[in-house]
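Q: I'm writing a short explainer about Tyrosine--tRNA ligase for a general audience and would like to include a description of its predicted shape. Could you first generate the structure from this sequence?
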Amino acid sequence: MNTSSPAAPFPVTDRVREALAVTRRGCEELIPEDDWVKKLSRSEATHTPLRIKLGLDPTAPDIHLGHTVVLNKLRQLQDLGHQVIFLIGDFTSLIGDPSGRNSTRPPLTSEQIKANAETYYKQASLVLDPQRTEIRYNSEWCLPLGSMGMIQLAAKYTVARMMERDDFTKRYQAGTPISVHEFLYPLMQGYDSVALKSDLELGGTDQKFNLLMGRHLQQEHGQEPQCILTMPLLVGLDGVDKMSKSKHNYIGISEDANTMYAKVLSISDVLMWDWYTLLSFKSLAEIAALKKEVEAGRNPKDAKVALAKEITTRFHGAAAAEAAEQDFINRSKGGIPDEVEEQTLALEGGAPVGIAALLKQAGLVASSGEGNRLIDGGGVRVDGNTVSDKGLKLGAGVYVLQVGKRKFKKVTLSA
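A: Of course. Here's the predicted structure. Afterward I'll give you a sentence or two in plain language.
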């Protein structure tokens, strides 16, 4: 049985030090770092790639930039020559991850999980090299475990240790229900590391307990324990909360290029530097030099434009990023983008329609009241001209409606 830390008979070369620097870039914790150095040294000396695991539960159909923080790190380690394992938690999704939650998460149906999983790997491949990525589903080993195997696995951890989890402790003290099946989640995630013989597992800071469970269970099964790497949670567009669809502060990696570019430009100058560290593929030296230029008086917008173009290029290509930049410039000058969604509406009785009602019919505002408020604030344009009269009515014809800087609709009104 090999349950101890990796031996260290191999030299720590400059390449190992470089790999360590890549590993540590932007990370929150690397546990234990000494063991990781030993693993890297052994890998280089024996020309044996390390097995690096990232597990994602397909709880939603799309991936946003917050997810790519760990995907970027995975790609960096992949480029060093290590074996990346992209694990889709189709079994653990049936349980529901309780991490960071103050209530029981409703488990997904198998149909929902399958539908979401279909898009996950395709989107992750925009960051990872698909030719060098091993894709696995944890139902492969979790389902054959069976009820007896599940009981035996549960015997390897105590309730007292499980209750050390911050979220479980808070819920217990508050009298909030904790379902027994929720204790199974960290056990099953830890068992994934046993099944895959993982050398390193990545996750957000909210996953630390689950990642440490993998080390514990590997030791229980006579394996050399994995190291764990936690990455910060990316702060969303609002500059306050972590990026989340539920917070409406996210950028989906499948969003169109123009929207992606504009959203990146909307973040604060302060938040921009954290995004550079966690999302950019520029070296730390390049980022430091750019930051020094801004501190010396260069317009921070230049740095933000470079970041927006880099991220948009990654998911849509250089040509689309250039077009998105030009589109943003046109919009900021009150111009109309080249491609605008079109819609045809019939005038009731052939009579002209009020501008606020038209904005609602075109789906640009939720209500006529909202439309009127935007008109009062100078936020509505027709054919590039600002609307100041809430009583404006439009007859048959073709109009380009604009709300704010980003919402456009080309509307044909027919009598």
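A: For your explainer, you could say: Residues 257-332 form a domain with the Tyrosyl-Transfer RNA Synthetase fold (CATH 1.10.240.10).
Q: Perfect, that's easy to follow.
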